[in-house]
Amino acid sequence: MSVPYSDHENGSVLLDPIDNEMRFEWMDSNRRRNLFSLTRHSRIRANQVKHREQLVMIPPSLCGSKHADTVLGDRNNVPFCFVFLRATIALDIFKTTGHFHFMPRASVKEQIVVAGLRTLHQKGYNACSIQDITEAARVPKGSFYNHFESKEDFAIDALNRYWEKVEDSLRLLAEAGAPPLTRLNRYFRHLNDIARENQYQTGCFVGNMSAEMSDQSLPIREKLASLLKVWSGAIETCVREAQSDGSVRLDIDARSLAAFLLNSWEGAMMRAKVDKSHAPLEDFEKVAFTSLASATATS
Fold it and tell me: Which of 78, 189, 227, 251 shows a CA-CA span of 20 to 30 A to 2?
């Protein structure tokens, strides 16, 4: 990403969000290329700076971010300060630096979400500290609070990220060319295969958080309720199609059947974690889909 900052284009600054390193490049008046590198916690002495007019700190308030870290050189009347922001680097209101670029690597927030979701899924909410999350993400603990107000706030973001995977698999329920009951069977078999691949160690993150946090956090409970409602609704649509073609019983409404399928699968998943066995999931498939079938379809 490149953003014009002044009317000159002979300089740039690159921020590596993973290593918190800034690299400044510019051409001096003799057209010589200069390169200067700083880590987040570097302190620069005045005699280290040859081109003192190149850079200046812009107050964070002018950059539209309430979360900023600064790295300051020894002043000595040298305007050589840096502002680290979520997505903005403010610099050079003098002459030379024309563009800044973000290095093409994952953002710190992305690191925290990916590693934190994995850690939460493995340990559970209460057994997982913010320190655990930031250590897994390999970022300073303070970086967590640049992006999340609390662990509760992070957990909701982690649920949203996990939901992306759930939502992606829901496409199996709408797959063209297959009867609706077949699609339902394939969908739950797909979920069961994932559990087998993971050796029944982590289970379903939505189910785990539902069991652990429903009475401890209202925002998390509300997020879980909304996700489960959408999940059940996608299954309900497929069940209704199966009722229309006569392959699923009509004496129970589609909403109730869909809720039964999802609730039963979550329970079977929990038992599979305890037993470290596929048997509970096999039992789910056998009983659930035998119960779904209409008398006409089984005769």
Answer: 78
